[in-house]
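Sample intake sheet
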Amino acid sequence: MPAPLTSGVDSKLDMLRRMPEREARPQAAKQLEVEFLAQLLSALRKTVPRNDFLPKAPSRDVYDGMFDHAVAERMAAGDPLGLAHLLAQPAQPGEGLKLRQGTAEKESAAPGLAGRK
């Protein structure tokens, strides 16, 4: 029985699991941002009406997915959302993010200090 094929994402995850956390955390955060942006681009693509210039075909879907992923990798190189930077930082004890009215705010363990610099 042949060995099952793994996707590129699975092999990247396996590589990250074998790395020390200090090295793996920034790379995993960057990869998460790439995947998020690829999903975002795919969702945005679905909002654009299709025309007959490029008819719907399975090969086009594959190409669109590859294109979205390539564009997402280029976008993530500049960390446009700050997601990779935020996730790459180790969490400090007693600190976290708390959502308030649709925005993320840094929360401190000490009352009354949230959001102060």
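Comment: The CA atoms of residues 6 and 94 lie 39 Å apart. Confidence is low (pLDDT under 50) at residues 1-6, 106-110, 112-117.
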